[in-house]
């Protein structure tokens, strides 16, 4: 993402990678710091730390070096959540590589995750002193909400009925608030007015909801050649995605019995399970309904961005990012 901005012609992703690579972790104890280096080496899209920089760039009153520590803090926090989430999900792979708890063990992963969270606060302390109280307030609010969202997600595994509103609120907390918070933290460092920060945060929050709804849709209907993981993975494990919820609330009594029988199929019958569930999705027009909901939150995000009172050309990178996220194949 090369941006013609107040920061000059800068590839923000490269700048973040450079900042992450320049951080020196102690060599000992090796089982505390090596897993941190490992998870940070599994480079994802770096969307969240880029948003912190874009949030500052939008208002144009900050130096890049003032924003980078907040950007790194966001990336540290995100990876801390990934380490702990993988333990809770018993996931063997992350970004195509072994998860930390699988490569080492649960105890090491828990402690390394904790250390990474502390390192995030260490980075925040490097931000301009005048903004640190407000940055901490925002960071702590978002961090706690992410924990609330993760708990709700786990609770849903054993909850019989999950409504559409409950699900959207869960993904808002688990996924979206961190996108909004990253943008807001960048705007804080750029000394943006509070009213404009609220609009920018809402843009990130609504975009994050649309992003997760898109992820649910791709899991069932994505192109296997480009999706990057097994199509129908959520169906196999009976995950209560938006597709599952929209379907269940529309089923007639006869199809509800079929639905229950599909849920009861084991992972050894995964192909049949996916096929039968997608037949129900098709019968009840679930894909179109899910896409309509995704578009609703996408439009809300664009409206939030439109309402921010800065020159339209300054919003170009955020529009481009939103467009890429909502038209991705994986």
Automatic annotation (TrEMBL):
CDD domains: Trans_IPPS_HT. Its cofactor is Mg(2+). Keywords: Magnesium, Metal-binding, Transferase. The keyword tRNA-binding does not apply. Belongs to the FPP/GGPP synthase family. This is Polyprenyl synthetase family protein. The lineage of its organism: Bacteria, Pseudomonadati, Bacteroidota, Sphingobacteriia, Sphingobacteriales.
């Amino acid at each position: 993402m090369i941006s013609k901005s107040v920061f000059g012609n800068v590839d923000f992703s490269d700048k973040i990678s450079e900042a992450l690579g320049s951080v020196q972790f102690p060599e000992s104890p090796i089982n505390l710091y090596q897993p941190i280096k490992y998870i940070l080496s599994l480079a994802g899209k770096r969307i969240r730390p880029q948003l912190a920089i874009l949030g500052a760039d939008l208002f144009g009153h900050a130096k890049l070096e003032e924003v980078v520590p907040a950007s790194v803090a966001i990336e540290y926090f995100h990876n801390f959540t990934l380490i702990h989430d993988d333990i809770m999900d018993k996931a063997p792979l992350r970004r195509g590589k072994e998860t930390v708890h699988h490569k080492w063990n649960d105890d090491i992963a828990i402690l390394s995750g904790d250390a990474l969270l502390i390192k995030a606060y260490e980075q925040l302390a490097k931000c301009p002193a005048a903004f640190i109280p407000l940055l901490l307030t925002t960071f702590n609010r978002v961090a706690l909400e992410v924990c609330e969202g993760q708990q709700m997600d786990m609770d849903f595994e054993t909850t019989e009925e999950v409504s559409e509103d409950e699900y959207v609120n869960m993904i808002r907390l688990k996924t979206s608030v961190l996108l909004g918070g990253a943008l807001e933290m960048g705007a804080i460092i750029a000394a943006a007015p509070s009213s404009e920060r609220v609009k920018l945060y809402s843009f990130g929050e609504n975009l994050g909801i649309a992003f997760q709804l898109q992820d649910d849709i791709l899991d069932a209907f994505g192109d296997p050649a480009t999706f990057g993981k097994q199509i129908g993975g959520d169906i196999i494990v009976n995950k209560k995605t938006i597709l599952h919820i929209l379907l269940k609330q529309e089923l007639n009594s006869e199809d509800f019995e079929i639905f229950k029988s599909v849920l009861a199929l084991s992972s050894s019958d995964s192909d049949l399970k996916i096929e039968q569930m997608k037949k129900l999705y098709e019968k009840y027009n679930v894909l179109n309904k899910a896409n309509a909901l995704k578009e609703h939150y996408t439009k809300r995000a664009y409206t939030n961005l439109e309402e921010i009172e800065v020159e339209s050309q300054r919003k170009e990178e955020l529009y481009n990012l939103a467009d890429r996220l909502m038209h991705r194949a994986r």
